[in-house]
């Protein structure tokens, strides 16, 4: 059984000797111009650094004199930072005959999800006989929506599909949420 091949990364040092000519960038970012790959490798060795290909699709390919370990670390760090944090959809479940304290517990859970920046999917599940009165489930869902209106906003009205009534609450942007603090503070230098 063969092991999966590791990503070899960019071509460095002797692997670049197959190229006839490269455009060289110095360790400080200065353009050193066009030269043979052998000359570029000799310059990198004199500086005690590596010759790394940074743009192979260019004509001629662009190489840089840099410490390969540091280059790889910074590239991985840029890649990690460029990935956006994914917004999760968390869910809470209700029933039309949920008790008041249980409803408050679910609201507290949803509040925590919205504060973390996640969407909240509120599902009200009906049993067979409860489907005759969907307005009871809608009232429970709307109680959750009104309790969370300072942290999030529903994208649309609750929809009944099958035996479930569903609504998704999107978090408000961080600057738009209201704190419980007073908003009109007086500047210490101003007179009243």
Number of strands: 9
* Coarse structural class: alpha+beta
What's the SSE pattern? EEHEEHEHEHEEE
Number of structurally distinct domains:
2
Average pLDDT rating: 84
CATH topology of the largest domain: Translation Initiation Factor IF3
Helical proportion? Answer: 25-40%
Distance between the termini: 81 Å
Could you state the CATH homologous superfamily of the largest domain? Translation initiation factor 3 (IF-3), C-terminal domain
Any guess at the CATH architecture of the largest domain? 2-Layer Sandwich
* Number of H- or I-type helical stretches: 4
Strand content: 25-35%
Radius of gyration: 30 Å
Q: How many strands, what sense, and barrel or not for the largest sheet?
A: 5 strands, mixed
Task: Give descriptors for this structure.
four-stranded mixed β-sheet; 192 residues; Translation Initiation Factor IF3; alpha+beta; five-stranded mixed β-sheet; Ubiquitin-like (UB roll)
Plain-language structure description:
With 192 residues, the chain is α+β, with helices and mostly antiparallel strands. It folds into two domains: 13-75, Translation initiation factor 3 (IF-3), N-terminal domain (Ubiquitin-like (UB roll)); 89-172, 2-Layer Sandwich (Translation Initiation Factor IF3). The chain contains four helices and nine strands. The strands form two sheets. Strands 5, 6, 7, 8 and 9 form a five-stranded mixed sheet that branches. It starts with 20 loop residues before the first strand and ends in a 21-residue tail after the last strand. 19% of the residues are buried.
């Amino acid at each position: 059984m063969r092991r999966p091949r590791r990503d070899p990364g960019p071509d460095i040092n002797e692997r670049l000797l197959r190229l006839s000519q490269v455009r060289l960038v110095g360790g400080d970012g200065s353009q050193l111009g066009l030269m043979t790959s052998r000359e570029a490798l000799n310059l990198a060795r004199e500086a005690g650094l590596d010759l790394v290909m940074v743009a192979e699709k260019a004509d001629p390919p662009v190489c840089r004199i840099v410490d390969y370990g540091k280059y790889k670390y910074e590239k991985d760090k840029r890649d990690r930072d460029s990935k956006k944090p994914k917004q999760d959809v968390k869910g809470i479940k209700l029933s039309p005959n949920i008790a008041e304290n249980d409803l408050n517990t679910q609201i507290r859970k949803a509040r925590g999800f919205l504060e973390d920046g996640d969407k909240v999917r509120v599902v009200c599940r009906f049993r067979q006989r409860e489907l005759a009165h969907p307005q009871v489930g809608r009232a429970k869902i709307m109680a959750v929506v009104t309790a969370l209106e300072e942290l999030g906003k529903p994208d649309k009205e609750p929809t009944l599909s099958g035996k479930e009534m569903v609504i998704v609450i999107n978090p408000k942007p961080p600057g738009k949420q209201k704190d419980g603090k007073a908003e009109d503070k007086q500047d210490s230098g101003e007179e009243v």
